[in-house]
């Protein structure tokens, strides 16, 4: 009988071990059957406990006399187990149950209360509540004939009334009922933000989604503020965020009596919130707020918005490094029911303690929102310039018109009131711009804010109020003449790809969000409320991205006459094609569109070099950002798209040219076994190459940025009808050809550097998509399947998880509480689905279901101590398991619904199918491990799966 129990166990025990235990009981007492009955009375037949107790009896130093078996077993259990069970290594099973009961405090309260009622009453009516399901899944209670009871005497003795009372008291002391609901709400908000920010970022570069992306963030932040106010019983709550410069706080959410959003800025050190940010200390004023000198701003705002503050509590939110990131400000403690006719008495010590408990989740949400907002602004900067370049074909292609269009977009991007782009005049040594109604205006280098930026090439941010700046005299005089009030400023240099200063962007007066009127000159020098804002570090970063693209465009505009000479086409057509192709590619942002745009633009230069040298074919290889690879683009007729080709800059002829910067000509290039010579040619095409010229393009710093490769110098212009060999110059390319190229490089160099910059941007966009697209697509795929049946949802989740993590195999295991099993449906070779079931606690997925904790086993899984089952399964299926990631899927209220199991992380670029005939050999593409990014992505992904599953499991 003991052997049968061993076979039913979810723990690794052999049949021989069970026989040994049986012999041990028989050796312990002639009435060993009576001993076994007493064992089962204590364990209720629970396999693991039954085995362990039998072993304990067999190893006991004494033996029971006949008729004392029950008393002897009870003394043994209580002395060896009940009294010190938490210290016994063989009772890890009990410790696991304890941990699962207590791991989530807001959930633990409900579980313990349900368990306590069953314990007190002896049994209870069985129902489908999530609490009873979870207690049954732990094995702590059993369902029998419509009722539930404690599984066995050991559980009842260990998790007794005293233990439950103590656990409840501890949890309730740490987490009061109000706090529990509040922290649960914060957890849900944080989860909502994690899921939604992927979609927010994916839409942030689309103008039509701009307001929606920002609104999604504001809604989360508004909800956080509302929840904090509700927890503390405050009439109003405001969260102030500290800007990156740590000079100013700005309100996230604050509403007046009409429900309108208010936008409030407070300098650090001013007002209640400003003092909290400066000193990192709580401020609590229980009454007579207006008499406190720090409350001058509170009084001012109350008067403006027709409100009266009776008491106030302001609390700093600190980062892990103890730096202030935000301030929570609460106004007017609302009276309780027993104080309904009394005035508010201020916030209490208990309020302060409750607020301290929620600091960590609030901080995480605020930091996530800040990070998301920063990335969103950077993506919007690129999208804004795309809008400017898309519209270039609608205006005259002269410098002034293009710059006006670009700066109008910058003004919109950063919500500035005015914007100007000052260009460098090399001939006169100053800056100039074109202002509407005034014509051309000039500024000396070093004079005024713009001149200082041109001189130092350093960005300049002057927050509100600019008149307080020591160098504001010139701005004040200009304002007096123009009757315009300058309040804040952001000036940044515009530099070409090779570091040449091209101009300065100047943005004046950051405007607060909202629909505000145009500035009224009649009110000068009064400062309108919507000008009381400042440009910040995020604005500077956005303009940095913006200005890099402006620098590339200015290079094309500046060199359009050179394009005319090189391409031998009209200047308008040349500039139009160059900029229109760039703009269209950024609007599309697919890899094919981007590379095709670059290929067509690069073709202008290569065709002109062909004509200049009289060559049959020219290829330009440009050095990448890491200066380790030369790249170029060729047309692939099979895919009808441009394809990138790459040559190492550290090997062969390319390496020598980078080092020597010398021209190389060859009359027999087919004999040169070098990648730079052969790259981009069909295998047989090299045999038709009679001569070659390799020309290094060097920048102003003496560094090679490109290599021009030209094949087959012609005697005269090649006409169709003659043979190629009859037109080839026998002597090949000459020093005169190299000199022609050298003379053209002054005008060609900036164009090539522009290509380099655009290529870098393609790479950046690809990296952004790698970070966003897979997870967003996976979540979208699962969301779209929410209306399907169980089989469809299982297959959709498995496919989406596989694509997201580059796993070789994926399984979604659903929990069946009625049978205490995991189940799924696995596709067969004939297209049918076969249902498979696994007991809870068995295998890796079963253990994750039992513990609720993620399990990540890196390569090689066979070295893991619990890999025996995986090895046996692999031997049957001839599949090699090398790495694994198992993650729980929870419902919104924390109930375990399923487990996602990912097997064998694959190297990203290898799509080879696994060959069972090679088993047990490990293929190279399986020598990989799931990492922290995979685990983080799957956590977010499983959150969405947890939203979908309840609909199919009802």
From TrEMBL:
SUPFAM superfamilies the UniProt entry points to: GAF domain-like
UniProt domain GAF: residue ranges: 216-376, 398-564, 789-954
Database matches in Pfam families: GAF
Lineage: Bacteria, Bacillati, Cyanobacteriota, Cyanophyceae, Coleofasciculales
Name of the protein in its database record: GAF domain protein
Organism of provenance: Coleofasciculus chthonoplastes PCC 7420
């Amino acid at each position: 009988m003991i052997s049968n129990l061993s076979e039913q166990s979810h723990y690794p025990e052999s049949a021989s071990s069970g026989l040994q235990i049986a012999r041990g009981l028989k050796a312990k007492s002639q009435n060993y059957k009576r001993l076994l009955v007493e064992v089962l009375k204590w364990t209720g037949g629970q396999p693991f406990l039954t085995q362990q107790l039998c072993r304990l009896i067999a190893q006991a130093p004494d033996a029971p006399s006949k008729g004392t078996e029950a008393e002897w077993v009870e003394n043994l259990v209580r002395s060896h187990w009940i009294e010190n069970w938490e210290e016994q290594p063989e009772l890890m099973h009990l410790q696991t149950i304890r941990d699962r009961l207590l791991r989530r405090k807001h959930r633990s309260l409900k579980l313990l209360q349900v368990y306590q009622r069953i314990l007190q009453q002896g049994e209870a009516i069985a129902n489908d509540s999530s609490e009873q399901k979870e207690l049954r899944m732990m094995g702590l209670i059993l369902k029998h004939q419509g009722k539930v009871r404690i599984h066995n005497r050991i559980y009842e003795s260990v998790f007794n009334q005293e233990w439950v009372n103590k656990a409840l008291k501890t949890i309730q002391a740490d987490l009061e009922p109000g706090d529990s609901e509040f922290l649960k709400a914060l957890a849900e908000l944080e989860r909502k933000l994690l899921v939604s920010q992927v979609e927010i970022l994916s839409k942030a570069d689309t103008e039509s989604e701009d307001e929606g992306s920002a609104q999604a963030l504001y809604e989360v932040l508004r909800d956080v503020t509302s929840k904090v106010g509700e927890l503390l019983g405050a009439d109003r709550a405001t969260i102030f965020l500290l800007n990156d410069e740590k000079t100013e706080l700005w309100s996230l959410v604050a509403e007046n009596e009409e429900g309108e959003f208010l936008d409030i800025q407070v300098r650090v050190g001013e007002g209640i919130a400003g003092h909290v940010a400066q000193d990192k200390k709580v401020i609590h004023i229980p009454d007579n707020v207006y008499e406190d000198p720090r409350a001058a701003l509170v009084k001012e705002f109350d008067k403006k918005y027709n409100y009266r503050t009776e008491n106030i509590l302001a609390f700093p939110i600190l980062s892990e490094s103890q730096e202030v990131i935000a301030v929570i400000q609460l106004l007017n403690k609302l009276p309780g029911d027993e104080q309904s006719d009394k005035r508010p008495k201020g916030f209490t010590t208990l309020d302060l303690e409750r607020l301290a408990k929620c600091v960590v989740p609030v901080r995480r949400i605020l930091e996530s929102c800040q990070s998301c907002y920063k990335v969103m602004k950077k993506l919007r900067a690129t999208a804004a310039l795309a809008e400017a370049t898309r519209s270039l074909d609608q205006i005259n292609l002269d410098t002034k018109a293009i710059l006006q269009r670009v700066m109008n977009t910058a003004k919109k991007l950063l919500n500035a009131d005015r914007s100007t782009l000052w260009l460098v005049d090399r001939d006169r040594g100053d800056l100039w711009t074109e202002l509407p109604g005034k014509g051309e205006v000039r500024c000396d280098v070093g004079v005024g804010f713009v001149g200082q930026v041109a001189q130092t090439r350093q960005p300049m941010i002057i927050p509100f109020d600019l008149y307080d700046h020591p160098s504001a005299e010139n701005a004040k005089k200009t304002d007096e003449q123009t009757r315009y009030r300058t309040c804040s400023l952001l000036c940044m240099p515009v530099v070409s790809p090779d570091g040449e200063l091209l101009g300065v962007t100047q943005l004046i007066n950051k405007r607060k969000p909202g629909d505000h009127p145009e500035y009224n000159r009649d009110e000068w020098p009064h400062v309108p409320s919507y000008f009381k804002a400042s440009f910040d570090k995020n604005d500077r970063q956005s303009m940095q991205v913006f200005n890099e693209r402006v620098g590339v465009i200015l290079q094309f505009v500046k060199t359009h006459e050179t394009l005319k000479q090189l391409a031998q086409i009209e200047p308008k057509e040349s500039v139009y094609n160059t900029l229109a192709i760039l703009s269209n590619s950024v609007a599309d942002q697919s890899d094919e569109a981007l590379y095709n745009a670059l290929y067509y633009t690069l073709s202008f230069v290569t065709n002109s070099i062909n004509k200049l040298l009289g060559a049959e074919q020219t290829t330009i290889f440009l050095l990448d950002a890491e200066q380790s690879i030369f790249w170029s683009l060729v047309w692939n007729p099979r895919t009808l798209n441009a394809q990138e080709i790459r040559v190492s800059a550290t090997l062969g002829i390319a390496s020598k040219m980078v080092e020597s910067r010398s021209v190389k000509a060859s009359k027999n290039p087919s004999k040169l076994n070098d990648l730079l010579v052969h790259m981009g040619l069909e295998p047989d095409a090299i045999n038709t190459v009679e001569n070659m010229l390799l020309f290094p393009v060097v920048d102003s710093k003496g560094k090679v940025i490109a290599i021009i490769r030209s094949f087959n110098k012609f005697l005269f212009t090649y006409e169709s009808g003659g043979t190629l060999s009859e037109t080839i110059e026998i002597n090949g390319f000459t020093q005169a050809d190299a000199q022609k190229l050298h003379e053209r490089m002054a005008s060609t160099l900036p164009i090539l550097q522009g290509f380099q910059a655009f290529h870098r941007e393609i790479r950046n966009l690809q990296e952004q998509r790698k970070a966003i697209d897979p997870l967003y697509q996976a979540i979208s795929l699962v969301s779209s399947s929410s209306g399907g049946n169980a089989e469809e949802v299982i297959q959709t989740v498995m496919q989406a998880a596989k694509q997201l993590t580059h796993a070789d195999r994926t399984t979604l295991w659903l929990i069946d509480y009625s049978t205490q099993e995991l189940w799924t449906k696995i596709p067969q070779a004939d297209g049918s689905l076969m249902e498979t079931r696994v007991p809870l606690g068995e295998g890796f997925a079963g253990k994750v279901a039992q513990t609720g904790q993620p399990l990540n086993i890196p390569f090689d899984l066979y070295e893991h101590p619990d890999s025996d089952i995986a090895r046996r399964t692999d031997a049957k299926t001839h599949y090699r398991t090398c790495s694994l990631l198992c993650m729980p899927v929870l419902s919104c209220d924390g109930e375990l619904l399923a487990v996602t199991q990912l097997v064998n992380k694959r190297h990203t670029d290898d799509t080879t199918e696994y060959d069972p005939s090679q088993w047990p050999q490990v293929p190279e593409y399986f020598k990989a491990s799931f990492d922290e990014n995979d685990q983080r992505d799957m956590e977010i992904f499983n959150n969405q799966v947890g939203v979908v599953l309840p609909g199919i499991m009802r």
